[in-house]
Design a protein that fits this description.
Blueprint: H1 2-50, H2 55-65, H3 70-76, E1 85-90, H4 96-99, E2 106-112, E3 118-125, H5 129-167, H6 170-176, H7 192-245, H8 257-286, E4 296-299, H9 301-318, E5 322-326, E6 331-334, H10 336-353, E7 354-366, E8 369-378, H11 408-418, E9 422-428, E10 433-440
Helix pairs in contact: 1-5, 7-8, 10-11
């Protein structure tokens, strides 16, 4: 957007300089032609002054001095610098004042007799309207060109660059799994098919994510089953190893030295298997969250802008009233995509499990850090189930009729932990509200 403004300002500056330069050139040329007209008037006046005898002779002299030689003047001067007509006005002419009325296209020269008495005036008529019209036409032409070019640039901005700028961040957000709604369908011939294709890609990724979550759930169940299945045999192996090491199976109860050494090795390998099983269980859970924190400084209001951009239309279509109470404009230093990913999950849950009466988002900064709260009314999670909310693939008793995988809040809390924060749950029995609070130090 800033680049487009710079382009606009550069174009405006270019046209302003060009417009000023052309007008300066034309005005200088007009001023130069004014001097040429004065030269011609002086030349003709001197020639006619020398030939003056009486009024009737003066008209003949004008023919001889100017009209018969007009082609010579055209070779030397421009057309609008040469008089179009010359007439002699006698001092005895009753309409002299009217004929000598001042005009921008008129030059007047005094004619005197041999006694230095004024006999009349030579009136030189010039036609410079065509040149002035040319200046007007040039300015109008430049103004039209500027208007058309600016209109074209504005059209490109509104129909191509503007929509593209809005969509430019969509692929990145889509790759991070932060998209909450599709790109709005558009009849724009430039991006209609692109938007359709991107939305198809989003549906494809969403479907793939569901399948991956299901496979991950099956994988975790398999690993957990195997891990717990291994625990019992390993425990028994340790007991047998301990019995051999202590000589429990000897008649005299005295352990054999070599047997004790082998039993100790068996016991150590059993311990190694136990550690591997524990790591396998932990890895099966932690490996499900694909997130790498990249902390940057940004204003909290950018989170508000994200919520409005991603959810305002969705709330409107679902007829869910919502409000955002942002009580700080401070800078926060953390991973922005992680925050938006967590808030998206919390808001999605508020929409799915709420009763549609309203959602309240609160953002505030306290001494210990930032708090992002999402509160909504709906079916309350039973008190006994709250400790299990953040378990992987766990779904509450209020989620039987709602589509989901049970991994969203598990991922959210993992991300919050990576960012050094946590997520807390509050249950309000009297008002029938659930509140999820994200804390970021």
């Amino acid at each position: 957007m800033k680049r487009f403004v710079i382009v606009y300002l550069s174009m405006f500056l270019f046209f302003a300089i060009t417009f000023t330069g052309v007008n300066i050139f034309l005005n200088q040329d007009l001023s130069k032609s004014e001097k040429s007209r004065n030269v011609i008037v002086n030349r003709l006046s001197d020639a006619l002054q020398q030939e003056f005898y009486n009024e009737s002779d003066m008209n003949k002299n004008i023919e001889d001095v100017f009209y018969h030689k007009v082609d010579d003047y055209r070779n030397e001067y421009k057309d609008y610098e040469i008089p179009q007509d010359i007439c002699f006005v006698s001092v005895s002419d009753k309409k002299m004042d009217l004929r000598l009325a001042e005009s921008s296209d008129k030059r007047i020269s005094v004619i005197k007799n041999s006694n230095d008495e004024t006999e009349g005036f030579l009136v030189f008529m010039f036609d410079i309207s065509s040149y002035k019209n040319m200046i007007v036409y040039v300015n109008i032409g430049m103004a039209i060109c500027a208007f058309l070019l600016f209109s074209f640039m504005l059209y490109i901005h509104l129909n191509v660059l503007g929509p593209f700028h809005k969509m430019s961040t969509y692929p990145e957000i889509l790759s991070k799994g932060e998209i909450t709604e599709k790109l709005p369908e558009s009849k724009n011939k430039y991006f209609g098919r692109f938007i359709w294709g991107i939305n198809m890609l989003g549906d494809k990724l969403s479907g793939d994510k569901k399948r991956i979550n299901k496979l991950m759930q099956e994988r975790q169940v398999l690993l957990t089953t195997i891990a717990h299945g291994i625990k019992t045999p390993v425990a028994n192996i340790k007991l047998y190893a301990s019995a051999i090491e202590t000589g429990l199976y000897k008649e005299d109860g005295v352990p054999d030295k070599d047997d004790a050494i082998i039993a100790a090795k068996i016991d150590k390998n059993a311990d190694d298997i136990t550690v591997l099983v524990k790591e396998m269980i932990e890895t099966s859970a932690t490996g499900m969250v694909d997130f790498h924190a990249c902390p940057v400084k940004f204003y909290v209001k950018e989170i508000v802008a994200f919520i409005n951009q991603e959810y305002s239309n969705r709330f409107k279509m679902l007829h869910i009233p919502y409000q955002i109470n942002c009580q700080t404009q401070a800078l926060i230093d953390t991973d922005q995509s992680g925050i938006t990913r967590i808030l998206s999950q919390m808001l999605d849950n508020a929409i799915k499990y709420g009763d549609g009466q309203g959602i309240c988002i609160t953002i505030e900064k306290q001494e210990e850090g930032f708090f992002f709260s999402v509160k909504n009314k709906g079916q309350l999670i039973p008190e006994k189930e709250i400790p299990f909310i953040f378990n992987s693939f766990w779904r509450g008793s209020n989620a039987e009729q709602v589509e989901g995988s049970g991994i969203g809040m598990f991922e959210s809390r993992r991300i919050a932990k990576i960012l050094g924060g946590d997520i807390y749950v509050k249950r309000y029995e009297e008002s029938g509200e659930m509140e999820f609070i994200l804390y970021i130090p």
